[in-house]
Amino acid sequence: MKKTIASACAIALFAFSACQKESIPGPSGSSQTTADLVYENGQNPDEDVFKDNASSARKHPGGYVYVESNDASQNSILMYRRHPDGHLSYEGAVASGGAGNGGGLGSQGALVLDRKRDYLYAVNAGDHSVSSFRVGASGSLTLIDTESTGGMMPVSVTTYHHMLYVVNAGSDNIMGFTVSNGMLSPIPGSMQSLSGAGTGAAQISFSHNGQFLYVTEKATDMITAFPVGPQGVAGPGTSIASTGQTPFGFAFARNNYMVVSNAAGGMAGLSTATSYSGTNTGNLGAVNGAVANNQAAACWVAVTRFGRYAFTTNTATDNVSSYYVSPTGALHLVEEDIPSGDGPIDMAFADDNFHAYVLCAADHTIRIYDRQPLGGLGATGSMMNLPAGAAGLAAF
């Protein structure tokens, strides 16, 4: 059973049918260790939580972590209180007004918070809808609206100010909505097609400036960019070949570089990650190629608050890898094999930039970590008994 579910990422890739020091050239051509590079002469803001007293990060107030059940009869959002020390306690569930598909979504971004943490959005893959929730001061959720996505099997959602877009993996298209106090209204003319049929869409996300939407396509090895006009209407997409096989999840790191995981069809030892420049102009360019982590099925990506570190969850090898993102966007592997639970999929960092959470599909857990210096993670516990098929992870 474990092997079957742990390979869920690799299987989903084709549903259309894991600290070592390394020598890295320095800016002057000299050689320096990864630790020297990452420390940035003491000016790495993502290391600030370790200055003076490493426990200071634990003094931050708690927050919440959310997961969707993805239940085929009634999708619900599971709410977990995040305590100051990072551990979780279950607070209950809120029905989404839609249905899940009962299995893995093979996507990143099924569940997202807006930038102000005022609203939470969730896809309902089973009945082709998207739901919005108001986030209360205590982290409680109130369902506001559920609307059709205009396509089949929505798997990922993204938001920027008053706009929301969703990608429909079953119908290979995107659809936009305006958002007003959580109410969703379709944007006329916003539906656009991906590069073709059976693309295996994995994630949709706005660029940092909101002027472009990006969608990774697992089955075509493409990344498709859509320009977004001032009224929120997406134009036709332009697709580029991914640098790395099977582009899956992505997140924006320092200086708006987009870090994409490349699952390589789930093949053993062949997973990589690629950093792209040009995200605010739609002209993506790979910075330093597909950087290997020597693991299998690198599918999801999470970055720290200041974007100096990017992490991939490697579903088929049950581990997490970390990369340092240099000022020029170049990726350098730091930790290739941070153990996780079985079948890690979604990952998120809390707002305190110290606690991290990984949803594990095969053993139905959320694994809890404290960040360690220079791109490390230290396991501190887990939340057990999540529903089979649970998907999406959002935290603050």
CATH class: Mainly Beta
Q: Give the C-alpha Rg.
A: 19 Å
Tell me the name of the CATH homologous superfamily. YVTN repeat-like/Quinoprotein amine dehydrogenase
Number of helices: 3
**Sequence stretches where pLDDT stays below 50 over 5 or more residues:** 1-8, 10-31
If you consult CATH, what is the topology? Methylamine Dehydrogenase, Chain H
The percentage of residues in β strands lies in over 45%
What is the number of E strands? 31
Which architecture would the CATH scheme give at its second level?
7 Propeller
- In helices, the fraction of residues equals under 10%
Please tell me the overall pLDDT.
91
Shape type:
globular
Total separate domains = 1
| End-to-end Cα distance | 32 Å
Q: How many strands, which pairing sense, and closed or not: the largest β-sheet?
A: 5 strands, antiparallel
Note down, in words, how this protein is organized.
The protein is mainly beta and 396 residues long. The chain has a single domain, classed as YVTN repeat-like/Quinoprotein amine dehydrogenase (Methylamine Dehydrogenase, Chain H). It has helices at residues 2-6, 8-13, 34-39; strands at residues 23-25, 31-33, 63-68, 76-82, 88-95, 111-113, 119-124, 129-135, 141-148, 154-160, 163-168, 173-180, 183-186, 192-193, 201-206, 212-217, 222-227, 238-241, 247-252, 258-262, 272-277, 285-292, 298-303, 309-314, 319-325, 331-339, 344-349, 355-360, 365-372, 376-383, 391-395. The strands form eight sheets. Strands 10, 11, 12, 13 and 14 form a five-stranded antiparallel sheet that branches. The chain is globular, with a radius of gyration of 19 Å.
